[in-house]
Every structure is written in C-alpha cells, then in structure tokens.
Amino acid sequence: MKTIKNITTQDIVGLLTSNAAVALFQGEAEAGPRALGNRSIVFDPRLAHGQAYINKLKKRESWRPFAGTILKEYAAEWFDMQGIEDSPWMSYAVSIKNESDAELIPAIMHEDNTCRIQTLEREQNPVFYDLIHEFWNSEDADFPPILGNTSFNLAGEPLVHTIEDAIKSLENSDLEYLWLPENKELIVVSNVS
After folding, report:
1. Which of 31, 52, 168, 173 is the least crowded, having the fewest Cβ atoms under 10 Å away?
2. What is the pLDDT of residue 138?
3. Residues above pLDDT 90, as percent of the chain
C-alpha cells in the first residue's frame, strides 16, 4: 500500500478515463441504501463491461445494476424525468430520452433502457460535482455529464464508515484506488488478481 500526495481532481479523472474504478471517501459517513458521493465507488459509465467489472470488484452477483450520478442541469436533456425535477437521493429509475444514447453509457443502463439516477447540484457535494464536471470536460463530451456510482462496500458488508473500513475493503478486493479529496491523497493497493 502506498499513499500519493497532492492528488487533484484531474488525476482522478485520468484514472477513470483509463478504465479504473476509484473509491471516494470524504466528509461525513452515509447511511441508507444509496451511495451519494461520500462513500462511493465511481467509474466511467462508458465501459462496455462495466457492470460485470464493478460487480467483480465488489464480489457480488454479476447481474446487479448500477446507478449514475448526473449533473442536475443536464438530467432532463438525457433522461425522461417524467415530471420529476430532481432525484438527489437516487430514488428513481428513468428512461433515457434517445435509445441510441443508451449505448454511450452501457455500464449503468438497465436492460429496459432505464437508469437509476442521482441528480447532483454543486451545493450538495462540491467535490463530487467537480469530479463529474471535470470528467465530462476531459473528453469529447458526446456523453452525458455522468459517472457510474455505487456504494463503497463489498458484498454482504455495510457501507464503509471509517478510513480503516475503507482500507480493509481495498485489501479484500481487486479495487486499487482510494481517493481522500480533503487530504488530497490517493491510497493505492496493488492487489488486482
């Protein structure tokens, strides 16, 4: 295990665009059924086999779907919000507006071309918002400003609470990267099987 200091959002975007998943550990612990950006595993939603890849990292069934966190101001451009203004708690599965766009984000699309989304405003979680915005601006932007997002835990385990829980999860999985944005640190555990 090693710790790299002075990590920027751009450094994390570089990992994401090279097909790595990154555990995000910041702020207060989260409770409940959804990861909302403080205890999350984030990944590029364009990964063709992203669902299987992340499920393998989390040691859970390969069929389990994932959610996407999208910048709120773009949600209605990409998804049929069905009169819903926002979904900050990742409570709704919505259809993608253009079926061909589902191919752009296969790692988070369900078989029926819906996606459970979390809409995000900067005021709700500035670090997570800025990460998504930077990721979106790092590429050709022909996909929504969205990241794959799942709870930071392994199968059968509760959501990580402490930094010790987070490191234990890395050591017991194929997940290699733990980002601590408040400390500007990245913990790397080289344990990919």
Report:
1. 31
2. 86
3. 84
Tokens (6 digits) for 1 = 């295990």
Q: In the 3-class helix/strand/coil scheme, how is the chain assigned residue by residue?
A: CEEEECCCHHHHHHHHHCCCCEEEECCCCCCCCCCCCCEEEEECCCCCCHHHHHHHHHCCCCCCCCEEEEEHHHHHHHEECCCCCCCCCCCEEEEECCHHHHHHCHHHCCCCCEEEEEEECCCCCHHHHHHHHHHHHHCCCCCCCEEEEEECCCCCCCCCCCHHHHHHHHHCCCCCEEEECCCCEEEECCCCC
Which has the minimum average pLDDT: 4-18, 21-35, 152-166? 21-35
Cβ count near 54 (within 10 Å): 23
For residue 141, pLDDT over 70 is answered with no
Which pLDDT score, from 0 to 100, does residue 74 have?
95
Q: Which two tokens stand for residue 84?
A: 């819903």
Tokens of 56: 């393998």
Indicate the pTM of the whole model. Answer: 0.95
Instruction: Report residue 193's pLDDT band, with 50, 70 and 90 as the boundaries.
Output: low
**Nearest residue to 7 via CA among 186, 143, 167:** 186
Residue with tokens 């920027």: 8
